[in-house]
């Protein structure tokens, strides 16, 4: 019997980290207490997108969206809404523009400009149920491909669709598949790169957690095209929930016969295995990833030969990321021409972006290619929190670069972002406001890539360390004339000489911040000033005598006894003793401690 | 004993090495792999010890020294950093009385820094064993540590 209400509880990792599973348990108990079990079905789904609002609950058929639901709220929702039909307004989403309640989830501004293809099922079905996936057309594309189409006609549809790799480079998918298909070999492999290590990107995790069968179906179709009978999904160990759901999905697909021998009674057989990483960013690089699958150290090797000719076990291998494979079933079902209608001249379809940093609405957003950066971060992301302004967004993580507001009207596609000195990358969008120091941010990215460098090639191992040293010097107020030029020279050398993608792109955050924020570098070097008041060594503290109430709190907290004064006597910081730790600034209840930079 | 049982689950193929290392580490009460573990794995897979050691030391999540019952991994990626992971780290150090890479004397916690956990929408975030915690504030963090100390998890 159909249920009167379907209650979807977001169980993506972000919502779980805010107790969505406890909310679900409490809801089940409450429904049970009121004897509503037969009328109301509670379903755990994958990520719905708006992580900022989590834990998120969506109630069908009314389409009521509840945000930030806690265990204490459950009783009210079940009694008032589920039993009496009166939605709990205080937990519903309010439009920040009009301040009015939004009664239907489809009217929430966060979803308005989105077009969901890859994420169509995420947040709408139970990821642990193959039946639900089949009910929304799952495995129809695989059936159609292996029973009605030849590998060539499938490949042709992919070509017409214009699909390009969603993991970074944007290489045309049909060409990768064609190269592998044309290789003569007794064995071929299909690999999915789910080693989503780019800080700020989490769409692949969400697709696997929310809709694992879509990935399996896409990989099986790739196997059919290239003539592979075995595949691997390489998932990073930091994603235990994704690993668990994927393994469950694979065993369900095997039980039903969508994986295994003679799929859909055809001659096509395909088997899939999960491989788990162990915390190495460089394994996102394809040749390093292949080494890791083979049980070796995850170091890259020079290309060519490309994996399409010599991949895992030296056999021809097609390798794409999660989001790329997640597009495949839609292309087969709707035709390549359907996808080619979406997007720009060179970039077709949609792209999932992960919004994070100082932005109001963090989470996942899927938009057609050609959407402008402004639409993405303001119309969907809601812009910076009150009282702040976005001064740059970092696109493409540590491999990408920053983009400043004057370029926010650029339509997003592979080429235009590269022209700006950033890159599509895997789609991480990190927003930064005036409280972010660009020199420090660049240093931070470099700290990361230095640490993750595998050490195999000299430009990356030694060169990045040198760049880091220069940045460290600048942020400590010891920068000298010529440091910026040295950074540029080093950066460009590393870009052209490093062995793999990690080293070749690692200087990008530095080069792009120099390009757009050279003045901040110059201020650090010449004026010893950090305008964002982030670089500790460039900040001094002073007490505003007008605001000081002489309470002695700051003096008590000061670790080096640098604050003079007593109860009733206005406090003064002795600059020669002060170590700029900021304790006084944090503790002062009257805002009397001022931070200064570059004013001697 | 445990080690033999784990090895028996696997085919003796070199590509199972990472899985085996993970499994043996998870089964260890101190969350690490010993020299003897690596020697026996090498024998089992027919690999030189140096290969097993090379792989085990390459990956940051496989430890060669004893760690606490719970491994706390604080995310220090740019989105978390922008949202204040540094002050969260200070509080963690203060609460646990240890530095990054160290283990509490009671062997309950090891504190580590990790790269992105992929929950940037709820930054700052951390992972304790396989559990993820987001939107960390000093208050929330102290409660989580307390819960683990008291065994309420």
Q: Can you walk through the features of this model?
A:
- The complex is a heterodimer of chains A (600) and B (153).
- Chain A has 600 residues and is α/β, with parallel strands linked by helices.
- The model of chain A has no long low-confidence stretch (mean pLDDT 95).
- Chain A has five domains: 5-109, Glutaredoxin, CATH 3.40.30.10; 130-340, Rossmann fold (3-Layer(aba) Sandwich), CATH 3.40.50.11540; 350-433, Ubiquitin-like (UB roll); 438-527, NADH-ubiquinone oxidoreductase 51kDa subunit, iron-sulphur binding domain (de novo design (two linked rop proteins), Up-down Bundle), CATH 1.20.1440; 539-597, Alpha-Beta Plaits.
- Chain A has helices at 13-16, 20-33, 74-83, 109-112, 130-135, 140-148, 151-161, 173-182, 203-210, 212-226, 240-256, 286-293, 322-334, 336-340, 373-380, 414-419, 438-452, 458-475, 483-497, 501-505, 508-527, 553-557, 583-587; strands spanning 5-10, 40-45, 57-60, 64-66, 189-194, 230-235, 271-276, 317-321, 350-357, 363-368, 390-395, 401-403, 428-433, 539-543, 563-564, 572-573, 593-597.
- In chain A, a hairpin with a 3-residue loop joins strand 3 and strand 4.
- Chain A has 23 helices and 17 strands.
- In chain A, 38% of the residues lie in helices and 14% in strands.
- In chain A, the strands form five sheets. Chain A has a five-stranded mixed β-sheet, with helices on both faces. In chain A, strands 2-1-3-4 form a four-stranded mixed β-sheet, covered by helices on one side. In chain A, strands 7-6-5-8 form a four-stranded parallel β-sheet, with helices on both faces.
- Chain B is α+β, with helices and mostly antiparallel strands and 153 residues long.
- Chain B folds into two domains: 2-58, no CATH class; 70-150, Glutaredoxin (3-Layer(aba) Sandwich).
- Helix content of chain B is 44%, strand content 12%.
- Chain B contains seven helices and four strands.
- Chain B has helices spanning 2-8, 17-27, 35-45, 49-58, 78-82, 85-96, 138-149, and strands at 70-75, 109-114, 126-128, 131-133.
- Chain B has a four-stranded mixed β-sheet, covered by helices on one side.
- In chain B, a hairpin with a 2-residue loop joins strand 3 and strand 4.
- The longest helix of chain B is centred in the middle third of the chain and has 12 residues, at 85-96.
- The model of chain B has no long low-confidence stretch (mean pLDDT 94).
- The chains are: A alpha/beta (600), B alpha+beta (153).
- The interface between A and B is large, with 56 and 42 residues.
